[in-house]
Amino acid sequence: MPEKLTAEATLEREYLPVRGKILEIAAALDRITRCEGSNMHDPRLKQFHSALEILLGAEPDRAERIQLLFSRPYEENWPVTLQMPSL
Amino acid sequence: MYYIDPHIHMVSRTTDDYETLAKMGCVALSEPAFWAGYDRGSVDGFRDYFRQLTDFESRRASNYGIQHFTWLCINAKEAENVELSREVIAMIPEFLDCSGVLGIGEIGLNKNTRNEAIVFLEHIDLAMKTDEQILIHTPHLEDKYQGTRMILDMLGSDSRISRQRVLVDHVEEHTIRPVLEAGYWAGMTLYPVSKCTPARAADMVEIYGPERLLVNSAGDWGPSKPTAVPDFILEMRRRGHDEQLIRRIVYENPLAFFGQSRNFVFQRPI
Ligand SMILES: [Zn+2]
After folding, report:
1. What is the least distance, in Å, from the CA of B226 to any CA of chain A?
2. Distance from CA of A35 to the nearest CA of B (A)
């Protein structure tokens, strides 16, 4: 990190953008709830909840963990599963 | 600041875009072969595309003082057609001695299927036999992590590969570390919605440092921003990073990577 950039300065810079993004999420979730046929058990909504829980943690790798949450799993033995010629 | 965009699809952009890029300091760019938005019907369709990339496009760029380089392959989306892919791979060597051709790319995976993996391996084999550098596309969104790991498995299983001659593109927070740790170059793509933002790219520079790291726009025919690299430069400046660090990522690093290609001849701007 450049020396000049303190946590205070970064928070100052990010405060309004983050506030705005949280508000967008809140409004989007309200929109889904308000619509006809809204299904609170949709796995994608559960994914959102898990993502929001990650944000509440204190570790500095939230972005990486959010990415992994929205990723299909990797399996080491994929060459066997896909019957690859030879690897 | 002069900069180089190492991944941009100019055949899909207008001449006005070249003018804008030039005004913003772009002095060179490299254009990997990719999907046209529809599947091409024959090997001749690819031959014509490669002529456009190696001939017409470089002339269009040079009118604005921009040096144009390119990479050749059949992309992952069309790799489902293994028969056509093999015809294209057999035809690619016709163009490998053209000026400005930096290697094989962007090869990779899209939906992480068996056919995509087979065609990926056959491209790698071509690159090894012809001593070419490699530029790799990693999949989007939920397929990225799995696909990147599969790509690293395939690269790692080929002992002929010099890792510093391979660029793994479109890395994000969850894929950058394994790519850099394995010794490959990593490209961060600034792209609306599906990839990375200038702020997140700057975060990754702060976390991982500038070694073997590139930034590109991957501008193409979809919603994309050809001037995304200047956005990254501005973000870095706003955070107080020094010009030397910024210049390393957007100018010196692309030169160092491209410089390993035998067809890379670069006129440094005065
Ligand atoms: Zn691309």
Report:
1. 24
2. 24
Q: Does residue B113 belong to any structural domain of this protein?
A: yes
Domain containing B225 equals 3-258
- How many folded domains does chain B comprise? 1
Strands (E), chain B: 3-5, 26-32, 67-72, 101-108, 133-137, 166-168, 185-189, 213-216
How close, in Å, is residue A47 to chain B by CA atoms? 13
Model pLDDT for residues B90-146, shown as the tens digit of each residue: 999 999 999 999 999 999 999 999 999 999 999 999 999 999 999 999 999 999 999
Q: How far is CA B109 from CA B35, B77, B168, B183, in A?
A: 12, 8, 11, 20
Shortest CB distance from A72 goes to which of B113, B142, B242? Answer: B142
Residue B211, domain CATH: 3.20.20.140
Ligand 1 midpoint to CA B216 (Å):
10
Residue B118 forms part of a structural domain: yes
**Per-residue model confidence as pLDDT tens digits over A7-50:** 999 999 999 999 999 999 999 999 999 998 878 899 999 999 99
A78–B153 CB contact, under 8 Å: yes
* Cβ proximity of B188 and B171 under 8 Å: yes
Q: Is B149 on the interface with A (CB under 8 A)?
A: yes
**Residue at B269 is within a domain:** no
- Rounded-to-integer distance, Cα B132 and Cα B129, Å: 8
Q: Which of B142, B150, B241 sits opposite A78 (nearest CB)?
A: B150
State if pTM tops 0.90.
Answer: yes
For residue A68, the chain B residues in CB contact (below 8 A) are 145, 174
